Amino acid sequence: MCNGRKYIVKREYVRYVMDEKQKEPDGKNRMENFSSTVTITSVDTGVYNDKDDLYDPFDHRDKKHATSDGGSLAHLLKASLGTGILAMPSAIKNGGLLFGAICTILIGILCAHCVHILVRSSQVLCKRTRTPMMSFAQTAGAAFRIGPKPLRHLAKFAESFVDAAIGATCISGSCVYVVFISTSIKQVADYHTGTDISVRLYMLMLVPALLALGQIRNLKHLVPFSVIANISIMVGFAITLYYLFQDIKPISSVNLIASPGQLPKFFATVLFAIEGIGAVMPVENSMRTPEHFLGCPSVLNIAMTTVVALYAVIGVFGYLKYGELTLGSVTLNLDTTDVLSQAVKLLIALAILFTYGLQYYIGIDVIWGALRVRVSKKFQGIAETLLRIFLVIVTVIFAIAIPDLEPFISLIGSVLFSILGIAVPAIVETVSCWDNHLGTYRWRLWKNGTLVVLALLALVFGSWVSMVEIIKLYE
């Protein structure tokens, strides 16, 4: 699920900054809130005390523009149900019908659990540090600041690492968008012109539009583009479903389980499609009743159940429809000679083009936020403009280098989403619970250790298989 709506990052919702460089008179670290009147207490130990229960971070949040439970559910669904769903038939192809369907559900449960422990850890850390709310990166930093003393010096690194991972995820997702848009346009254009122009040339043709979208610096200016994108993708998706449920092949015509060499690509693609952890903390932070985000039933459980069910259904029926011919995005399988299919390809391409602006905005917001302090105020405007131009060119260069959706998607899923969506939440919970809160026989330590191992396996094998596929493109 890599799309621009996934990562509505902290700076649009959260203005709380924890600066470890500021010290109390006694030399201890102090986390300070620059946007709230709430006092952030000094924390030099990870041990709970009775006063922790007296501070309720939810009571200290600014709820002037808070969202309802329904609105928060809509945000999560919007963040999750993006272009990644179009890659699910390809994922099932790489897993097999039976194995892929079952494991899609299991991976969905795993992702939901990781979101749960991240949010729960953030809420506990807010209480222990007397902070109303935290972003993903701030949660990681706070966990190490109050965790075991030998690890506290890693707090700043943890925070920077999460920010960097979110930025890299958004920029790499933008590269996928360039490949998808160009491939869709090429299919329609080549059919009508009778030519076979390289997809790389179409990528170069997109550069002026991408540069223009990349210079948008205010989120509200992207709203009209998002509205058009949402309408286009809903119409295109509805027509795609119409095609998918026609002339479905029998189950005997497809593989129930794929070869072992394909399975890493399956796991990486599903992680890419489902994982949307970057949007979770902003949504939870903006809720009017954040206590409803977790639990049963809860906003998180309802959203994840809906998302996983839809992804499994689309993946299974898309694979049954096109079998081993399934491409990286199921819309690319639609018959180009059909006018309605051509409309779908162009509608989805338009939606992704306009979503590129949001995806890129989020990535540049993180990257420029880290670089701004290193540039003189006199030259910040020019520096930001040049950075935006440079990164647009970078996304196009990477897209030209890897003009195939399937290995590109699995590479990003295995490298970025396995770490950001699984390993980091597991590490955050372990560090924040290290002192007497790991449970009987330290079951949280064993559980989270297993999650980290799974993330590393996905990273190693998924990236290895993806790189082999990418190398084959040049042979």
How would you characterize this protein structure?
The longest helix is centred in the middle third of the chain and has 39 residues, at 155-193. It is globular, with a radius of gyration of 23 Å. With 475 residues, it is an all-alpha fold. The chain is built from 15 helices and no strands.
Question: Main attributes?
Answer:
single chain; 475 residues; mainly alpha; Amino acid/polyamine transporter I; 63% helix; disordered N terminus; L-amino acid transmembrane transporter activity; membrane
What layout of secondary structure does this protein have?
Blueprint lengths: L9 H4 L55 H12 L7 H8 L1 H33 L6 H10 L9 H39 L5 H16 L8 H22 L18 H12 L5 H6 L13 H24 L16 H33 L8 H22 L3 H28 L10 H30 L3
Keywords: Membrane, Transmembrane, Transmembrane helix
Main location: membrane
Subcellular location: Membrane
